[in-house]
TrEMBL record:
Keywords from the UniProt entry: Lectin
PROSITE patterns: GALECTIN
Keyword Cytoplasm: no
Record-level Gene Ontology MF annotations: carbohydrate binding
Gene3D superfamilies, sorted: 2.60.120.200
SUPFAM superfamilies reported for this sequence: Concanavalin A-like lectins/glucanases
Annotated protein name in UniProt: Galectin
Segments forming domain Galectin: 1-61
InterPro entries for the chain: ConA-like_dom_sf (IPR013320), Galectin_CRD (IPR001079)
Lineage of the organism: Eukaryota, Metazoa, Chordata, Craniata, Vertebrata
Source superkingdom: Eukaryota
Length: 61
């Protein structure tokens, strides 16, 4: 999921969000200065429904 490869990662990605319906997982990570951070898989529930739009609220706090 996402753009770039381990050989050529993008310079900066604030949030990469990968939704895997088959496994009911939401994967999150960021790329800072060309280095991908660890994947975060922790989620208390799976909030997505296939083919339905969703919103991601964001805050700088």
């Amino acid at each position: 999921c996402g753009r770039g490869t381990s050989r050529e990662p993008p310079p900066n990605v604030a949030l990469e969000l990968c939704v895997r319906f088959r496994d009911r997982q939401v994967l999150r990570r960021a790329c800072v200065s060309g280095s991908w951070g660890d994947l975060d898989r922790a989620a208390p529930f799976f909030p997505f429904i296939r083919d339905q739009p969703f919103k991601v609220p964001a805050s700088d706090r």
